[in-house]
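Methods — Computational structure assignment.
A single polypeptide chain was analysed. Its primary sequence is given first, followed by the predicted tertiary structure written as structure tokens.
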Amino acid sequence: MTPYKLLTYLAEGGARAGLLVQDHVHDLAELTGRQADGSVLGVLEDWPASQARLDAVAQWASGRLAEGQSLDRVRLAPPILYPSAIYCAGANYRDHSREMIAASGREEGPDPKAAGMSAWHFLKPPRTLSADQAVVPRPAGCKALDWEVELAAIIGRRAHRVRPESALEFVAGYTVAIDLSARDLFRRPPTPPGSPFFHDWLGHKGFDGACPLGPWIIPADRIGDAQNLELGLKVNGVVKQHSNTAEMIFSIAEQIADLSAHRTLHPGDLVLTGTPAGVGAARKEFLQPGDRVEAWVEGIGSLNVTIAEDEAAAA
């Protein structure tokens, strides 16, 4: 089978689904003749049938590279635009959980999986997505912007109450994500710590650009074992995180099963599966305007963004 990557690129008429074959981008709907293939969400809505169609047109495109656009001349958007949900796993790598507990001065509790607990997730608003090579403003009032590299799984079939042993059958593919976190916007002083209104998850995780994603999607059947992939993150070329998805507390399959137990997952939904140790909060080191962040996952590629000052803060 001809290797390909599924992406979204910006054309004159707006965002379009593209197929990347040997560093050339082809408009997917033009290749297949299907209007629904004009968006990646349209492709995912019919993912089981789409796979055979994409395999066929990728092979055709590999012999006609001149009919595509060179990747370096194409501006990418997030590979999926406007998913119905972005689920983010919290504290799902053992080393990251330990470093955050140590940073807070608390004692380490029992292993959540051994204690019979389920995976824990929060939500990011779908329009917080930003693309590879994007400039992401640091939110106004934030001086503690943190980084978190994550493997993101893309749902390709409607999933409701699925079992862990079959959960990966509902994954269309994988991409790279950065969960940007405004650590100093998480608390709402002078609200007392014991108040249910003390924490602000929206300010912490839901600001504009808070979820860089991309640069493209690798189909799940091309990725090998997603539970054994190296991943890492650099800030200005300096390695901050480097680990393996094998270090997750709850596996990708277990997370999908837990999420689907109480809600239906839809094609295009994103599951960010957690981050390893090495985040800025543990070392009291945070992103500054001008910093360049590069996150990568084995077998997928690198996602790059640059941090900028918020216009309101700079005024």
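Note: The chain has eight helices and 19 strands.
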